[in-house]
Each structure stands twice: as structure tokens, then as C-alpha cells.
Amino acid sequence: MTLRTIGQRSFDFDRQVAVMAVINRTPDSFYDEGATFALDRAVSAALAAAADGADWIDVGGVPFGRGPVVTTEEEIDRVAPFVAEVARHSDVVISVDTNRARVARAAIDAGAAVINDTSGLGDPEMAAVIADSDASIVLTHSVGPWREEKPAARFEDVVGEVKTFLEARVERALAAGIPRERLILDPGHDLDKNTLHTLELTRRYGELQSLGLPLLAAVSNKDFVGESIDRPKHERLSGSLAAMVVCILNGARVVRMHNVAESVDAVRMTEAILGWRAPVRLEHNTHPTRNV
User: 131: which of 18, 121, 182, 280 is 20 to 30 A away, CA to CA?
Assistant: First the structure.
């Protein structure tokens, strides 16, 4: 993994974790319920997240879960102006959460450095769009079409099946001409999985390191956290941070989080404990005591 250049920033994923802030340009977003749907509010939230230490901003124009149809043109109108405006003011990495190749193309043209594809190349044109650009892509495990009601989640071995899926998507990406150094993998916490599946995926997250690519963990405020500790979505910060740290200890190098300042602190503390980051200052018990 070692050094990766993504957009205008470089990351040493052997010793560094990137914090990805979540911005939703949707009126029906799961967590913020439309608070950043307006363009000006979304841009302000993104720049505030960067000021709070986020390395990366991830914007979505369509929620993953079921809901009303959003056309490709509407999705482009939601994300492309946002990307252009944030890129004008900051060197933060910008990714666009989309499953559509046309949206990805428009986002990259506007300045996005990453496409966060929660369908794992579900659009047959997506790989070609990425290959024809300098953008990286997050390949995510999910099952079946997005925005639709699906049957109850069933896996014989959730981690084994996720690994097999991701391996196949990596091969598809490479065959399309996307360089390996532009691939990032996300096992898809809660995406078409129930809480027991996601807890097992989190517990066995380290097994995904054998795929040999940077891993992303998107655990923030998700239902597996709420169901595990019986908390509504706006009271899941502590549980989300615990899940995030477990994933980092088991190989995650990008973490997708809503509460940026708290997440950055937890990530930097984890890096310090692991010996990857020196303390900002060193004062405690460093001076000889005065003899009286």
C-alpha cells in the first residue's frame, strides 16, 4: 500500500489513516435529514469539516437506501457544482458517492479525485470512465440494485463472500485498465447486511488485508451500532468511534465519518498509540522534580 497520491494530497497508508467526512446533497439523507441539501450549506459544511481536520470529503446526491427516483441529471446537478466550489477553496480530497458512470464523469470533470461506488462497478460503463481519468475508485460490496426493497440478508460466510466479491471487482477494474494503485476497497458495513453480519465483518475485518489494497470503513452512525447498543441515530457517536478504532486496528486506512472533530481526535490518538504519530507536545513527567 505505502504511499498514495490522491488528488492534491499524499497518504502513507502504512502509518496513516485518512478521515473522510460525509456531506449529503439530498433532502432525504439518513443521518442529517437534508441539512446540507442546499448548495451553500453543503459547501460550508465541507469547508468546516476540512478545517476540523478531515483529509477527504465524500458527497452523495442519492441515498443508498430505498426512496424516490433521482434522475441522472438531477444527481449531476446536486454533486458537480459542489465539487467545483469545494475544489476552488480547498485542496481536500473530494470523492463522489455514485453508482452511475455519467455522474462519475461529470464529477471528475468538476474536480473529484475519487469515485465512491457503492455498487462495486454495477454500471457496466463505470470502469471505463475511471480508466479514462486520473481518479481513484472505492469498490464497495453490496448486493443487488440500490434504492429498492430487498429480501432479508443471508450469507453462509459473510466475510468469505465479501472477499470473493471484492476480488472479482478488482479483477474487473484491472482488466478495464484501472491501475491497481488507484483502487480502494470497502466491505460495505450494513449495506444489504444485517447487524450480525456487520458485527462479524467488523470482528474479522483483518482478514480483508490479504486483498492487498487500502481498506475503507464506513461505520458512522449506522444501524448495526444503534441495534448493538440500543441508541437512536443521533446518539451513536461513541459506538461509531469504537467500531472505527476496531477497524483501524484491523487494517482500515480510510474511515468515513459524520462527526469530524471527534473522529479526527480518535484517529490521531490511535495513530499515536500505534507509534505512527509523535505527540504534539511532550511535557508530562519530563522535568526533574525540585528538591526541597
Answer: 18
